[in-house]
Amino acid sequence: MTPQPFDKRPGKIWFDGRLVPWESANLHVLSHGLHYASCVFEGERAYGGEIFKSTEHSTRLRQSAAYLDFEIPYSVAEIDEAKRLVLDANGLKDAYLRPAAWRGSEMMGVAAQISKIHLAIACWDWPSYFDPAQKMKGIRLDVAEYRRPDPATIPCKAKASGLYMICTISKHKAERKGYADAMMLDYRGFVAECTGANIFFVQSGEIHTPRADCFLDGITRRTVIEFAKRRGFKVAERHIKPEELSAFSECFITGSAAEVTPVSEIGAWRFTPGKISETLMNDYMAEVQPQRAAA
């Protein structure tokens, strides 16, 4: 079955301060954001009509724009309100939201300092990124060829579209080989993250996760670390060498799209989704879906 194209969906999109019909939310082919990747975005989820960590996402969106040397012409509070408006306008309670900001078409060249800054927010029904019934079996990951770059060469703290080019390439290669995603190393050869999610490992009851010094310190990542510490688990944020992976018993990934998803395989390494992964997965879902946890 061919998926419905994203430009052909019904509904409303918030675009530069007003709701417009979905099919009318267009940008010009000569927009700077398209040619030079001067675009930042967020991926968020709403559960039961509440957008999880909405203000943190809106704050990061504006910070990402600042890293790319432009300012979004809306405050954090205004972005939060716009997200609620578009969620209500589309009659959705459980949804994925995608705010994006970019430089427009006033200038075409590397420099575009007078270009208008646009902001759009879309939302749609998107179930769990991975099949919930299969989650505790663990997903399979490939090892990506590309590495997360040196932070001296990229604005690594920004959630910027250009930084995902190598992620798309890596995920496509992994999927063609039958994997769900790919784990990326960093420029030094340490374990970094997946193409759109952070990664965690378990060894002797302790949790280990790569230090986020050259890739995005995810909002879900920070949330799960908080939950783990609340449970009394020791969490070590450190540089992890690939050869250490054979000593880990469990592995899981985190992200707004992935939520908390156990991993059973990374290339030649094998893991057994276990109690710690399951506990943190359940803690996360209880946090984002309190009405379901209370049922």
- Largest sheet properties: 9 strands, mixed
CATH class descriptor name of the largest domain:
Alpha Beta
Series of H and E elements? EEHEEEHHEEEHEEEEHEEEEHH
The CATH superfamily of the largest domain is known as D-amino Acid Aminotransferase, subunit A, domain 2
- Low-confidence stretches at least 5 residues in length (pLDDT < 50)? 291-295
CATH topology name of the largest domain: D-amino Acid Aminotransferase, Chain A, domain 2
Give the helix level as a range of percent: 25-40%
Tally of separate domains: 2
Query: What's the mean pLDDT score?
Result: 94
Give a verbal description of the structure.
Helix content is 26%, strand content 27%. By secondary structure, it is α+β, with helices and mostly antiparallel strands. The chain folds into 2 domains: 12-124, Aminotransferase class 4, branched-chain amino acid transferase, N-terminal domain (D-amino Acid Aminotransferase, Chain A, domain 1, 2-Layer Sandwich), CATH 3.30.470; 132-294, D-amino Acid Aminotransferase, subunit A, domain 2 (D-amino Acid Aminotransferase, Chain A, domain 2). The strands form 2 sheets. Strands 8, 9, 10, 11, 12, 13, 14, 15 and 16 form a 9-stranded mixed sheet that branches. Strands 1, 2, 3, 4, 5, 6 and 7 form a 7-stranded antiparallel sheet that branches. The longest helix is centred in the N-terminal third of the chain and has 14 residues, at 54-67. Residues 291-295 have low confidence and may be disordered.
